Amino acid sequence: MTDHQALRARFNPDGSPLRRQQLRMLELLLELDRICKKHHIAYWLSSGTLIGAMRHDGFIPWDDDLDVEMLRSDYLRLLKVLPKELPPTMALQDHNTDPNYFFYYAKLRDRRSRLEETNNYDRLFCERGIYIDIFPLEKQRRWLHILSEKTTGHMYKVWRTSTNDAMSIRHVRRIFWWNQYLVYPLLRGLCRLMHSSVLTSGMGIPYHNPRYVEDVFPLTTHEFEGHHLPVPHNADRLLRGIYGDYMQLPNLDHVQGHAAKLEIYE
User: Fold this and answer.
1) pTM for the complete prediction?
2) CB–CB of 200/212 below 8 Å?
3) How many of the other CB atoms lie within 10 Å of CB of 253?
4) Which residue blocks in 112-255 are alpha helix, DSSP H?
5) CB count, 10 Å around CB of 81?
6) Please, what's the largest Cα pairwise distance for the chain?
7) What is the rounded CA–CA span in Å between residue 202 and residue 218?
8) Rounded to an integer, what distance in angstroms lies between the CA atom of residue 223 and that of residue 58?
9) Residue 229: beta bridge partners?
10) Gap between the Cα atoms of 220 and 120, Å rounded
11) How far apart are the C-alpha atoms of 204 and 145, rounded to whole Å?
12) Is 36 within 8 Å of 223 (Cβ atoms)?
């Protein structure tokens, strides 16, 4: 048995709940890929999903998450076309489609499942199926992005710890509106005055690891679960800059997932 087969046998054998979740996420990804190709929207695999592609030619065997990234300009285009293109079994989730969803990135949700996350942020969402995350990236100075993160810190704390959901939603909605329509447009104005070749997650998204334009573009493809999908041009250098030796496996006795409870319907 190869090392990869041993990992599959341990964490996500065929028919296991995790493998079924991964295959449902793959369905979402392939639909996203179809729509992006149709509308000439560039995206690429990112974070642990990219590690999985480069190290395992698919999902990290214990991973229950799937992430993609794209430039913010393409992200805004995608939000317009997705609702028109998706089949009824899938849904776009952002603040416009789900008023109690307060992340500054979107999710593509499966409607034939129900997932409860360990962080409990999702308790008031309308859509709660298996999902993939769609992150917009912006060119900006890293300190500006970190500043945008700080404006969301209190929002996350209220959302996570409040025992009065009605009151917390009102409070979080005020912070979200303030950031979305006042603070972040101001910070983006500063970004335009201060040229940067560094890409980080969009304003308010709490991940500021830098990516460099020359490592991302031009995009290429790599095998992921039997499909050739977009990845950064120099994925190895990008991943080593963020994670170090990403080819080295972590301590397998301490890996954890995101889902506290999962139901998958046919």
Assistant:
1) 0.94
2) no
3) 5
4) 142-161, 165-178, 184-193, 213-216, 235-243
5) 15
6) 57
7) 20
8) 7
9) 222
10) 36
11) 7
12) no
